[in-house]
Write a structure and sequence with these properties.
369 residues, alpha/beta, two-stranded antiparallel sheet, single chain
Length: 369
């Protein structure tokens, strides 16, 4: 069977047509696309889009359909097999290798992120329950975290992985907390230190495993996706040793339906080297006999809306951004954001906020929504 016929049959299972008229259909510009995808799997699909070999009316809708059926199981992805073998043999997220994602992704020009993310500089899922725009939704997310942690004035808070300092700034200015935050990205650390200057905030350029001290609360917002399956237990041990006897912790992470040991090959190469999404089973095993699970909140559909809002921001500012970034960068970023949006829409992946305590909340924990 010819390569094109194989791809047509596979996509047909997801109700996707080649050169069709529906938003989720794809338009193929180069017939080499078919053989490339069959030979290279996920990497070939993503790289051929970067090269302009195909397009979709709505890339997010294509991936929503794509993930509605297990199409990835129909193609043997040699890169995924190789990466899984490497992950078994080595700790791909040790202190040395974990720095790759900071250098490749997070140390990108902060001016680009300012345009994409908006004034709160939040690079994690917003909370849209009562919000009409991205800025409000991100503020609601920050306040949701603070309320779930029961922050009080004077609390000492440890943040593991702090991005550009948005949560530290919010917790310090709105709730009167002292925040100590660890981050391995030099660019983000410099930005966070400047933004939080004059506040009771200490930004440490260091790995989460290096955290020291005892705290009332611990927050890990968007860190767990970079920890790796061999280090989930280490993360929970770090949280445990850092919490006071009656302390609370919140982990905000993208989650996977299945337990995996490696990431999608395209994302591993171009977006988040060493990244992977934890499963319920992996996280529950990691916290076993260390922490009490008080609340597990899934609002994954909100990430779909957040990712689309980020892409809309990139599109709105592209005329000024393209003086620093080329068309290939634009297509790479668009593929990244909208393919994830489609995966969330199909409920293939999720957004979890998990509240844990060190010794249990006396009288029980009242969930916050």
């Amino acid at each position: 069977m010819k390569h094109k016929q194989v791809i047509e049959q596979l996509l047909g299972k997801a109700r996707v047509r080649i050169n069709g008229m529906e938003p989720g259909d794809i338009l193929v510009h180069n017939d080499k696309f078919y053989g490339r995808v069959l030979a290279e799997g996920s990497l070939g699909l993503g790289e051929s889009y970067m090269d302009g070999w195909w397009d979709a009316g709505r890339l997010d809708e294509f991936f929503s359909k794509f993930h509605s059926v297990p199409l990835d199981q129909a193609v043997v992805d040699k890169h995924l097999v190789i990466n899984a073998l490497k992950a078994r043999l080595f700790n791909m997220q040790n202190k040395r290798l974990s720095k790759r994602v900071a250098q490749q992704h997070y140390d990108l020009d902060s001016a680009f992120y300012e345009k994409m993310l908006g004034p709160r500089m939040q690079y994690t899922c917003a909370y849209w329950k009562r919000a009409q725009d991205l800025e409000a939704a991100q503020e609601h997310k920050l306040d949701l975290i603070c309320r779930k942690l029961r922050l009080q004035k004077g609390d000492r808070v440890l943040e593991l992985g702090c991005g550009w300092g948005g949560f530290a700034h919010y917790a310090a200015t709105t709730y009167g907390c002292h925040v100590t935050a660890y981050n391995i990205s030099a660019q983000q650390v410099a930005y966070a230190r400047q933004w939080c200057k004059g506040l009771p905030v200490e930004i440490v350029h260091g790995d989460y495993r290096e955290a020291r001290g005892e705290f009332d609360k611990v927050a890990a917002i968007g860190l767990c996706e970079h920890v790796g399956y061999k280090n989930y237990r280490t993360l929970m041990q770090t949280i445990h040793r850092s919490l006071k006897r009656r302390g609370l912790c919140l982990v905000h992470t993208i989650g996977n339906n299945a337990s995996v040991s490696t990431a999608d090959p395209w994302f591993d190469k171009y977006i988040f080297p060493g990244g992977m999404l934890p499963s319920v089973a992996q996280l529950s095993a990691a916290m076993d006999d260390l922490l009490v699970m008080e609340d597990w909140h899934n609002f994954g559909p909100d990430y779909d809306r957040t990712l689309v809002a980020w892409q809309d921001n990139v599109d709105r500012h592209w005329e000024e951004l393209k003086t620093s970034f080329d068309e290939r960068f634009y297509r790479t970023w668009r593929y990244y954001l909208l393919s994830l949006a489609g995966a969330f829409r199909a409920r293939r992946i999720h957004l979890w906020q998990i509240v844990m305590s060190k010794q249990g909340v006396l009288g029980g924990y009242e969930p916050v929504r």
